[in-house]
């Protein structure tokens, strides 16, 4: 299966990782127009406002594109660009499958808790 990537928080990512610790994938929402943005957004991509707040994503997404890296056991490690239901795109591991899901496949959030470093978001193919 997928190796556990190691992530460490810094000052700018502390809130985001604190969310993952308690099971929440946090994204940015614009106070001025309601547009959702990536966790690392500093301004709204719709109206350029810098008044963003953290909100919890619902935890569902769809595959946009995948990268499948062959493993020695014959399977693949799958990484994917996914579109969250709220709109932002993230590049995340896809777990629980050895083959790349097709674009448009619905996904459900799961949070990986590696032995070292911070928890990281990943997705599984929705049941
Ligand atoms: Zn906005």
Describe it for me?
The protein has 127 residues and is mainly beta. The chain has one domain (14-125). The chain is 6% helix and 41% strand. The protein has a five-stranded mixed barrel. Strands 2-1-3 form a three-stranded antiparallel beta sheet. Strand 5 (76-84) and strand 6 form a beta hairpin. The two termini are 19 Å apart. The protein binds zinc ion. Zinc ion (ZN) binds at residues 30, 32-33, 35, 44, 46-47, 49.
Give a quick summary of the entry.
With about 130 residues, the chain is mostly beta strands. The chain has one helix at about 15-20, and strands spanning about 25-30, 35, 50-55, 60-70, 75-85, 90-95, 105-110, 120-125. The protein starts with 13 loop residues before the first helix and ends with a strand.
Biggest sheet features = 5 strands, mixed, barrel
Strand residue percentage: 35-45%
What is the rounded Rg? 15 Å
Q: Which secondary-structure class do the elements indicate?
A: mainly beta
* Total number of helices: 1
List the helices and strands and how they pair.
Blueprint: H1 14-21, E1 26-30, E2 36-37, E3 52-56, E4 60-70, E5 76-84, E6 89-95, E7 106-112, E8 120-125
Parallel strand pairs: 6-8
Antiparallel strand pairs: 1-2, 1-3, 4-5, 4-7, 5-6, 7-8
Question: Which properties best describe this structure?
Answer:
8 strands, five-stranded mixed beta barrel, 1 helix, about 130 residues, binds zinc ion, mainly beta, three-stranded antiparallel sheet
């Amino acid at each position: 299966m997928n190796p556990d990537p190691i992530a460490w928080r810094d000052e700018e990512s502390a809130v985001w990782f604190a969310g993952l610790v308690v099971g929440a994938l946090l994204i940015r929402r614009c106070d001025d127009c309601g547009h959702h943005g990536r966790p690392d957004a500093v301004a709204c991509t719709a109206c350029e406002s810098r008044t963003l707040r953290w909100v919890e994503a619902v935890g569902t997404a769809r595959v946009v594109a995948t990268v499948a890296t062959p493993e020695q056991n014959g399977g693949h490690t799958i990484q994917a660009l996914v579109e969250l239901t709220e709109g932002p795109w993230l590049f995340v591991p896809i777990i629980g499958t050895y083959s790349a899901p097709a674009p448009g496949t619905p996904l459900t959030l799961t949070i990986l808790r590696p032995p070292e470093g911070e928890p990281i978001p990943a997705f599984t193919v929705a049941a």
